[in-house]
Amino acid sequence: MNNISYHTDQKNMIFRYFERNNDRQISASEIKEELAVANQKIGLATIYRHLDSLEKQGVIRKFADESGKKSCWQYAGGNENCSGHYHLKCEKCGKIIHLDCGFVSDIDEHILTEHQFTMDRAKTVFYGTCAACSQYI
């Protein structure tokens, strides 16, 4: 029973880390480093199992990083319709912005009508620079 509780505690720590960092994507290795700072020894395989479970629960979403070689996850727990909109990602700081904008429907319609192509909002991320980082350009 302690083993089950232990894994629940680990999963809760991972969940809380996502809550605190809800505006950016997080890698499994970053979670491992964060837990090590908190004196929690946890293997990457266990972290991946917890990430898979949280993803299936709809608490986090999985993305590929810019290289397409590494997976990252983002907190989606506070946004039930996270797959219903596009995302903006700052290339400078990594911040993720949920693009809840009516104008996007016009883009979807244009792409469908003019290019016979249906966009997948859940998998589409626009890259650029956020307002905060734009101040330093």
Automatic annotation (TrEMBL):
Biological process according to GO: negative regulation of DNA-templated transcription; regulation of secondary metabolite biosynthetic process
InterPro entries linked to this entry: FUR, Fur_C, WH-like_DNA-bd_sf, WH_DNA-bd_sf
Example of a GO MF term: DNA-binding transcription factor activity
Residues annotated as binding Zn(2+): C90, C93, C130, C133
Entries under Pfam families matching the protein: FUR (PF01475)
The record's free-text note on cofactor binding: Binds 1 zinc ion per subunit.
Signal sequence segment: none
Gene3D superfamilies tied to this protein: 3.30.1490.190, Winged helix-like DNA-binding domain superfamily/Winged helix DNA-binding domain (1.10.10.10)
CDD domains associated with the record: Fur_like
Keywords for the protein's UniProt record, in alphabetical order: DNA-binding, Metal-binding, Repressor, Transcription, Transcription regulation, Zinc
Named cofactor requirement(s): Zn(2+)
Similarity annotation: Belongs to the Fur family.
Annotated protein name in UniProt: Fur family transcriptional regulator, ferric uptake regulator
Organism expressing this protein natively: Treponema porcinum
